[in-house]
Amino acid sequence: MCRFLERRRRLGRLKDKRKEDFAKEFAKSGNLYQSALSAGYSESYAKSQSYKLLENVGISERIKEVHAEIEKKLIERSELEPPMSDEELLSILYSVARRRPFQGRSMVSVTQKGKTNEKTTEYQYSPTTEEQLAAVDKLARIRGMYSDKLELEGNMDLKVVVDYGDDDENEAPTDN
C-alpha cells in the first residue's frame, strides 16, 4: 500500500501520465493547444478535442492544485505576497477613489566589479484622476449601482409565412 501511495504522490493526483502532464503544463501556460501537444496528445486531438480535458473533473481539480502549489512556492521565495483579502482590496479601491497618497519603497541592487551596492528609495504616490475614476467605477459595479448588462423589452412576435407556390408555377413557361 505504501508503494501505491508513494507512486501516486510522485505522479501527482492523476493516474494517467498524459493527463497529469497536461494539467501541469496548462496550469503554467494557460494555453490549451500547446499543453495538449506537450503532454503527448496528437495534433488533431489538441486542435479539436482538447477542450474536453478541461471538462474532466479530475484534471480541473489537479490544475487548481498545481496553481496553489506554484503560488505557495512563490510566497515561500518571497516573490509573491499572500493573496489579498476582500477587505484589503476594497480598502485600496476606496483609497484610490479618494486620491489618498500611497507610501512606497524601492530597492535597487547595483553590481560593479564584483561589489554589490543596494540603494533604497522611499517615495509617495498619489493616484491620477483617471485612476480615481476607474476605482469609483469599480466600486459602483461592486455595489450594484449599474452593470454592463443590457435589458431590452419589446414585442418579439414573429410571423413566418411559407409559400410553396402553385403547381402551375412549376411548369415550364410557354411562349405566346
From TrEMBL:
It comes from the Bacteria. Keywords: Viral genome packaging, Viral release from host cell. One of its GO terms (biological process) is chromosome organization. The keyword Cell inner membrane does not apply. InterPro entries: SPP1-like_terminase, Terminase_Gp1_N_sf, Terminase_ssu. It holds the Pfam family Terminase_2. Transmembrane segments: none annotated. Residues 107-128 are annotated as: Disordered. The keyword Heme does not apply. This is Terminase small subunit. It comes from Lactococcus lactis.
